[in-house]
Amino acid sequence: MEYIIRELRQDEIKLLDTFLYEAIFIPEGVQAPSRDIIEHPDLQIYIANFGKKDDICYVAEVGGKAIGAVWTRIIKDYGYVDESTPSLSISLLKEYRNFGIGTELMKQILLTLKEREYKQVSLSVQKINYAVSMYKKVGFEVVRENEEDYVMVCKL
């Protein structure tokens, strides 16, 4: 599949609504929540007023359409580690998953974070999410866990 990875443009920030919703892991057989779930304050912290100094976002594009995004910002979210560690979010539209695009998005943002001299990046993921293996493959390690979730960190 032919795709490009590029920075999110200022006029595309509203796309993060879609990708935040797509980032919600829905186990097999579980009904997806309504789209307005992204209005919840626990989720809005990932995208509200995006574009500040520490915010970074790349999109994957196929045929002129954004089909995936990876973004980081320093927030006190589920994957929070400390004030200098950005939290990472990533998602792809369902029909574009399992083609390696997510891995390439991850590699791009990790490279950028390293170039900007961040020491590490974190994320939170449900243990049953198939993406855990991809996160490990690109260098994330589990640093904390509870019954359902891992907090993972990638040293840069």
CATH topology: Aminopeptidase
CATH superfamily: Gcn5-related N-acetyltransferase (GNAT)
What's the number of extended β-strand segments? Answer: 7
Alpha plus pi helix count: 4
- As a percent range, the share of strand residues is 25-35%
What's the alpha carbon Rg, rounded to whole Å?
15 Å
Defining key terms:
156 residues; alpha+beta; Aminopeptidase; 4-stranded antiparallel sheet; 3-stranded antiparallel sheet; 7 strands
Structure description:
The protein has one domain: Aminopeptidase. Strand 2 (56-62) and strand 3 form a beta hairpin. The chain contains four helices and seven strands; from the N terminus they run E-H-H-E-E-E-H-E-H-E-E. By secondary structure, it is α+β, with helices and mostly antiparallel strands. A four-stranded antiparallel sheet has the order 1-2-3-4, with helices on both faces. Strands 5-7-6 form a three-stranded antiparallel sheet, with helices on one face. 22% of the residues lie in helices and 29% in strands.
